[in-house]
Amino acid sequence: MSGIPDAAIRQRRRAEQEMHDGKTKVPVFGTGRSLAGGHPGRAEQRRRHYDSTQGRERAHDTFPETEPHELQRYGHVAALSGQPGRAGHPAARNLRAGPPPATLAVVYPQMCTLGGDNFWLIYDARTGKMKGLNASGRAGEKASIDFYRSRGLSKVPARGYLAANTVPGVVSGWDEAWKYSRSALGSQLSFASLLDTARELAERGFPVSTSLAYWSEVDTDPTDQEFRDLQRYPGFAATYLREGKPYGLGEVMRLPELAATLALLADKGADEFYKGSIAAAIAADLEENGGLLTVRDFARHTADWVEPISVPYRDCRAWNLPPNTQGMASLEILNILNNFDLSQIREGSADYYHLIIEATKEAFLDRDTYLSDPAFVNIPLDRLLSAEHGKRQAARIRMDKAATNLAPLDPKGDTIWLGGMVP
């Protein structure tokens, strides 16, 4: 048993369900999106075998059993500063200088992997400057409506090789954030040292958390052929299952191929993922199985420093990433709520949730109308984030009636949030 009260586990699970299904999307200070909506990272999809005498050993004193995972709870400043987490805590000692982003790619694969993207908001208190880093991948050169139609498809599949149509940006985000930490924050850490803990956990193994055990069961549901039943993919089955079954809570999972990938990155740097052997292996696997990303797609990838967008909210200023992210939607919600006196609405009441839901509907209507790649489409951000637009949206909200003439929301998604402070 994890020692966590059942109520707390249920509450965490509800939050993760919303996060997993896209009802919660907050792309702040470094987020990760799993490849193809939750499919494991392509670089670690090749077959491998567990030592049958060790594959099911259970963690005892080596690692604490917690929910969702103890290694995620501490050391949050390490991503940029390289400083360990809470002094003296076992997890902090295990983390040493390893950053949670890399660690999450090992112990939290149900939400983020090397095959995902990440987005960063980084505030430098010394200069008063907020910086944005967009490490999301662009669509491959073969990706087009005609490409999918020629294969008898009317939409991009949610899973499988044809779902993987954008280059994974995670590693480029780590690399750019690390470079910034050295040039602007005075970090002396090497890129390789930032992967040490993640690599060790992948090689030695880690205890499966409540969250991972739960989602492994959900994601291997054979009755859901659109979003689940991931055991149909040999790479997933060989990596995340043993003898065709999900790992249970507290059992030790080892990811030796992922450890080897991290070792390559530590030795040769982030370019190995985009211009070296890792890119070549991923592209070859995709080509063999009818996928569309090419080595040229990987070589062309870059993570981009962008100007964050913001709105005033009460006596603060809220920041987020510009398109192609959904940051504009979260800021629009706050812009709308600026026009209501929330002190008069009890938190947790029906009116409280009604108001937030209606504001979200208004913001998502703009999102679905305008959000795209700003390299190809002009998005009127100044107007959408203006106080006047927020007032017009707020005026359409009725506290006695839910809006029914808006498009339904997309319930799919898989984003995690990670925050940190550099002293």
Describe this structure in words.
It is a single chain. The protein starts with 5 loop residues before the first helix and ends in a 6-residue tail after the last strand. The longest helix has 21 residues, at about 350-370. A hairpin with a 2-residue loop joins β9 (about 310-315) and β10. The chain has helices spanning about 5-20, 80, 90-95, 100-105, 145-150, 170-185, 195-205, 210-220, 235-240, 255-270, 270-275, 275-290, 295-300, 325-335, 350-370, 380-385, 385-395; strands spanning about 30-35, 120-125, 130-135, 205, 240, 245, 250-255, 305, 310-315, 315-320, 415. The strands form five sheets. It has a three-stranded antiparallel sheet, with helices on one face. Strands 1-11 form a two-stranded antiparallel sheet. Strands 4-7 form a two-stranded antiparallel sheet. It is α+β, with helices and mostly antiparallel strands and about 425 residues long. α14 crosses α17 (about 385-395). Mean pLDDT is about 80; it is low at about 1-15, about 20-100 and about 410. The chain has 17 helices and eleven strands. About 40% of the residues lie in helices and about 10% in strands.
Distance between the termini: 36 Å
Structural class: alpha+beta
Listing every helix as H and every strand as E from the N terminus to the C terminus, the arrangement reads HEHHHEEHHHEHHEEEHHHHEEEHHHHE
| pLDDT averaged residue by residue | 79
Strand content: 5-15%
* Strand arrangement in the largest pleated sheet: 2-3-8
Give helix % range: 25-40%
**DSSP strand count:** 11
**Helical stretch tally:** 17
- Rounded Rg: 22 Å
Biggest sheet character: 3 strands, antiparallel
Overall spatial form:
globular
